[in-house]
Amino acid sequence: MTTQTISESVDRERTRRVLTKIIEKHYGPGNHASGTPQTTHGRGGRDASTGDIKEATDTQGGITIRTMSGDRPQRGFSVAIKGPGVKLPKARATADRVGQFIRDNWAQLSKKGFYLGTWKDDENGVVWLDVSKVMDSPKYVQAFEAAVKYGRSIGEEAIYDLQAGKEIMLNDNDIAAYRTQLAAAA
């Protein structure tokens, strides 16, 4: 093993330990040392609390949010990335489970451009938790086309227009209708 390789290993382990502490502090089980429950952590602060995320999912049908900043993009198209999505029965979609999903996917969620995405499917009685990308562009139709292309390439069923607050199914008819709607609005 070379010196550079040992040094890189030490740096990776140090980074892993620091991120683990951050995740445990903000999204861990139980209460903070002050007695404040983890699920209320972040109210009035920068962080998005798991309780707030769960509440927004229940009342608004879903949310796209940066977990550490609480930022919620207002435009662009949200698309779940391939892989880490979790489908839960609504009764099991608790604030603790949201926190566990964040911890399990922290490496991706902590990167720029990635968001926690939730979606409540009342028809099937489930809640989806995903890592999502938001695609945006000054020309909104370009963002739409990029989101459609990416979503279809990984087998997604739908994308979400954050500006319009509308789900677009990724079938030929709905895509064509949305293209027409975007063209008319331009």
Question: Overview of this structure, please?
Answer:
By secondary structure, this protein is of the alpha+beta class. It has one domain (about 5-185). It has helices at about 5-25, 50-60, 95-105, 105-110, 140-155, 170-185; strands at about 60-65, 75-80, 85-90, 115-120, 125-135, 160, 165-170. Strands 1, 2, 3, 4, 5, 6 and 7 form a 7-stranded antiparallel sheet that branches. Helix 2 packs across helix 3 and helix 5 (about 140-155) runs antiparallel to helix 6. The chain is globular. Mean pLDDT is about 80; it is low at about 40-45.
Task: Describe the structure in brief.
Helix content is 42%, strand content 20%. The protein has 6 helices and 7 strands; from the N terminus they run ααβββααββαββα. The longest helix has 25 residues.
The radius of gyration over CA amounts to 18 Å
End-to-end Cα distance: 59 Å
Shape: globular
In terms of per-residue confidence, which ranges show pLDDT below 50 for 5 or more consecutive residues?
Answer: 39-47
Count helical runs: 6
Please trace the helix and strand order, writing H or E for each element. HHEEEHHEEHEEH
Q: How would a textbook summarize the main sheet?
A: 7 strands, antiparallel
Q: How many domains comprise the coordinates? A: 1
Residue-averaged pLDDT: 81
Structural class: alpha+beta
Strand content: 15-25%
Q: Tell me the total number of β-strands.
A: 7
Q: What share of the residues lie within helices?
A: 40-55%
